Amino acid sequence: MKIALPAICLGFLLAACGSTAPPSIGYSRNLEPIPGSITYGGQPRTKLTKAPVGSIVPHRFRDKFGRQVSETYVIEPDRSLQLISRRIDYDLPSDR
Fold this sequence. Notes:
Blueprint: H1 4-20, E1 26-27, E2 56-62, E3 68-75, E4 81-89
Antiparallel strand pairs: 1-4, 2-3, 3-4
């Protein structure tokens, strides 16, 4: 019983972490583009021919809620862009 209770608690904590974290924020090679992302709706029509493969491409924009979004892309060998990270800056209310 001493081992089962911590194991069950750990299972609940891991399940809660997986279900409450927004899937579109963080660092991953599986991030989905959101409106405003360079690759939202598909790859750009123009290819980045002068930038070396593996180069980092930063992109900043405001989402539909007015929050600042910072994304990072990497140039793949086929010259496409792969979204690898996203950070959303949430404005906190000030005391003014």
